[in-house]
Amino acid sequence: MKLLEVNDLKTYFKTSKGYVRAVDGVTFSLDHGECLGLVGESGCGKTTTALSITRLLPKGGEVKGGQIFLEGVDYATLTDKEIEDHRWEDVSIIFQGAMNAFNPVKKVGWQIAEACIRHKGMTKDEAWKRAGELFELVGIPAERVTQYPHEFSGGMKQRAMIAMALACDPKLIIGDEPTTALDVMIQAQILELLEDLRKKLNMGMILITHDLSILGETCDKIAVMYAGRIAEMGTVDDIFNHPAHPYTKALLACFPNIYSNERTVPEGIPGIPPDLIDPPEGCRFCPRCKCAFEACSKETPEFKEISEGHFVSCHLMGKEENHG
Ligand SMILES: Nc1ncnc2c1ncn2[C@@H]1O[C@H](COP(=O)(O)OP(=O)(O)OP(=O)(O)O)[C@@H](O)[C@H]1O
Ligand SMILES: [Mg+2]
Q1: Nearest ligand 1 atom, CA 40
Q2: What per-residue string of b and e applies to 185-207 under the rule 16 or more CB within 10 Å gives b?
Q3: pLDDT tens by residue, 40-59
Q4: Ligand 1 contact, 228 CB (< 6 A)
Q5: What separation in Å is there between the alpha carbon of 276 and the centre of ligand 1?
Q6: What are the residue ranges spanned by the domains of the chain?
Q7: Model's pTM, two decimal places?
Q8: CATH number assigned to the domain covering 4-90+171-268
Q9: Ligand 1 center to residue 48 CA distance, Å?
């Protein structure tokens, strides 16, 4: 059985102007121990996808359709009370700048121990011991469990946050821009730590970022989101070396190629993403797409598997086949 299966997920926010269709038909799956990178421009629905899976949507946000199976249990249909039993133990999430979420007047180790007591029913002694073990696991000396947040650097706090997320041995861990607030060297260390832990603990992982360049070394597969939908999904090799969707190609062109001898200036993508209250008909990238033709503004392209595990939602796919 797959660890996670998300089928045609639709999550909307109710606002005074109408429904914001933040996630509008997203489908992907993840095996145990596998890492999926979720990438796309600001506002494309990455965080909303993560919050739908963990059922931590803010007020006004609601899963309107689809299924979210975590080891066969449909999270989309669990009650708020039922989800409490699964969060932390099956799935946990690390946010951008999460390190600032520690309570400044409580010892860091105690905040982790409390989670173990609450969710694992440990005694106080067991929970302190577990906090020390988790510290060691994320590369912090166990004796630092009695220190306060202000005694930790940003990178150390983020490590401690990861320790907290691991407290109940989740099967799936979601990192929503987990390194964005950190400097580049620390970023690399934290990503390496997550990668090590994932392999050691055989956890599934979803890594959310705007920065396509960090995904190559960390992920098995990548989903490129645009305006609430997945434009393209495939292995790292598919996405980096055989991108098929014009949006993926444009996104790749936004990053300088450090391995190339050619001195090319990265291009931006002209235009802005659509308003998700009233998105365009057909392909949502159509108004910005250099390759768009008639069908693109009329029909939603299907999410088509063009080679094993490589999915593309673009009318060009059928067209190229037909015209050679
Ligand atoms: N609480 C909310 N109420 C109304 N609309 C919201 C709310 N939260 C998010 N949205 C809208 O949902 C869409 C998706 O937002 P989301 O935060 O999921 O994007 P994102 O891909 O995580 O962006 P970023 O890269 O900036 O973090 C956006 O159009 C956003 O404005
Ligand atoms: Mg986000």
Answers
A1: 21
A2: ebbebbbebbbebbeeeebbbbb
A3: 999 999 999 999 999 999 99
A4: no
A5: 10
A6: 4-90+171-268, 99-169
A7: 0.93
A8: 3.40.50.300
A9: 6
